[in-house]
Amino acid sequence: xxxxxxxxxxxxxxxxxxxxxxxxxxxxxxxxxxxxxxxxxxxxxxxxxxxxxxxxxxxxxxxxxxxxxxxxxxxxxxxxxxxxxxxxxxxxxxxxxxxxxxxxxxxxxxxxxxxxxxxxxxxxxxxx
Length: 128
Hints:
Distance between the termini: 47 Å
Strand order of the largest sheet: 1-2
């Protein structure tokens, strides 16, 4: 949890990806997930500014969802037996998951091919 607090603190201090780096192993996993999203969109260089923002929001939302899921899965029960209802955090988790699904829907569900250089450009690049 301390790593999460440090990452949030570094968010405004060090720039765009500093918050992921501050998460250690979890950050590496999130970065791999984020890289996979960019790859599905045809590469980060082919993404619009809006798509980059959505990928960043989706990555942060995924982090929150993973933390909430870890908390929920560590609980003996998700039901308040005296009231016969779910604990409110279960519903909040659903809200976070729906937000992630909305970001993913805005990014699109189809994989986009990466733009490849022409054969001439590829050979010219290899000659350098």
